[in-house]
Amino acid sequence: MTARRLVIEADGGSRGNPGPAGYGALVRDAVTGEVLAEVAESIGLATNNVAEYRGLIAGLAAAAGIDPAARVEVRMDSKLVVEQMSGRWKIKHPDMIPLALQARELAESLGPVTYGWIPRGRNAHADRLANEAMDAAARGETWTRRTEEEPPPAPPPAAAPPSTEPTTTLLLRHGETPLSIEKRFAGTVDTPLTPGGLAQARAAGLALKDRDLDAIVTSPLSRCRDTAAEVAAATGLDVRVEDGFRETDFGAWEGLTFAEARDRDPAALDAWLADPDAAPPGGESFTTVSRRVRTALDKLKVRYRHRSVLVVSHVTPIKLLVKDALGAPMPSLYRMHLDVASLSAVDWYADGPATLRLFNDTHHLER
Question: Most buried of 87, 156, 235, 322 (most Cβ within 10 A)?
């Protein structure tokens, strides 16, 4: 007799990372697509990764309750969980180790279990369940599964209905600096703009002065603040500083070229290139940067809902935003090139996937 095939879709989220968190998971029949189980829960204060693992655990438990002998395919938009559970990435964070062990014990109680990454837009059902659980907790309630006949719970009074009108981020990389000319790691070191970089910032300001912009948000580092100031002078807009959009802290590699970093510590550089959880010595991992960039974006989308915002930032935060907009895996960062003072644009929809509308545009620098 052929084993039953089940599909688990799981997700988790944190509003603050760490912050109020919750997970959602569902089990489908792989042949018919019928939803056989839905689970969701608020888990108090936690990180995104903890919530995602909790969603996986709940999904595996639900599948075991349906058919312990089933062949199971797990689908998640968390590259971290998928790669760690597949055995391709090491589990280093102490909070993740017991959760991964629990998930593996559950998986071993089932038939064969495989793990696959899917874009965030294709994981909307599990994402909705996680948000329903967090919303219920915010109202002082416990999430319960609703039947098809039941309408969704009324949103909190302050919540706006879904809309097809996006929040638009126009992403401007800062102008040229002495370190960018020499292609050196420039993270949290506060390097200034060169005269050429200042001219690039002014060119960006001239190009943007007639754009329909509502606000300017910038990284706290001076090369971004000075770039933002030139745009503000041209547009008349105020500038708001958001720490989450600062560049990666490259630790011991600050000021080095790629070749110099490899000469000093080739093993560390190879690990950094292979694993988003790996950090430069004394620095930040891409996973850590991704969390704070997502938090900064969430804050921006609340403050400037359905408006257009210029974000003046750096290579890594801009690439991470583009990656998330495309639903691409973390290694896609190494396949993108961003020029100094280049412009990119993303539309973020509250009720659908994001859209990349522009990438690495430098036409304004050619005038």
Answer: 322
At the second CATH level, the architecture of 5-138 is 2-Layer Sandwich (3.30)
Residue spans per domain, the chain: 5-138, 167-366
Query: Which among 334, 323, 330 is positioned nearest to 89, based on CA atoms?
Result: 330
Active-site residue, selected from the candidate residues 38, 73, 174, 176: 174
Return the DSSP state at 77.
S
Provide the CA 275 distance to its chain's centre, in angstroms: 16
* pLDDT band per the 50, 70, 90 thresholds, residue 161: very low
Residue 174 annotated in active site: yes
Percent of the chain with pLDDT over 90: 69
Q: At the topology level of CATH, where does 167-366 sit?
A: Rossmann fold (3.40.50)
Instruction: Name, in order, each residue with C-beta under 8 angstroms of 186's C-beta and a sequence gap of 6 or more.
Output: 177, 179, 180, 247, 250, 254, 255
Cβ-based neighbour number of residue 195 at 10 Å: 9
C-alpha radius of gyration, the chain, whole number: 22
- Write down the catalytic residue from 247, 254, 284, 314: 247
The token pair at 185 is: 């790691």
Mean pLDDT to the nearest integer, 114-135 = 91
In the structure, how many helices (H) and strands (E) does the chain have? 11, 11
C-alpha of 304 from chain center: 19
Residues 204-253 have pLDDT tens digits of 999 999 888 999 999 999 999 999 999 999 999 999 999 999 999 999 99
Q: What are phi and psi of 110, to 5 degrees?
A: -100, 180
User: For this structure, is 337 an active site residue?
Assistant: no
